[in-house]
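Whether sequence alone determines local backbone shape is best considered at the level of individual chains. The sequence in question and its structure tokens are set out directly beneath this paragraph.

***
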Amino acid sequence: MYTISEVVALTDLTAHTLRWYERIGLMPHIDRSHTGQRRYRNRDLDWLDLVGKLRLTGMPVADMVRYAELVREGEHTYGERFDLLEATRRDVLARIAELRDTLAVLDRKIDYYAANTDADQALASERAS
């Protein structure tokens, strides 16, 4: 079992974010001690890792909450979960393609400036001699 402070240290999430996740339904299953202190388990850390990956995909929070609801509803929601994750995967692949195109433009510009900087430096060296 982990306290909220320990989870903050392990995940780099803030306590505010962890409480918000609980409030919006991303993590409604957090155990509590007899004093009301949140107690996280390894399965909660695994879930937070998945949520972090979903965030990196750009999945909207509403979709993450929907996914969490589907998980809690049980195995009969596999089809809906599949559809949600498949749509997210398509979005990620489209963003990767955009980033590859952007990287190609940057590489062309960098090559151009590198070539012209080298030529400028060579010309300056020649004039100094």
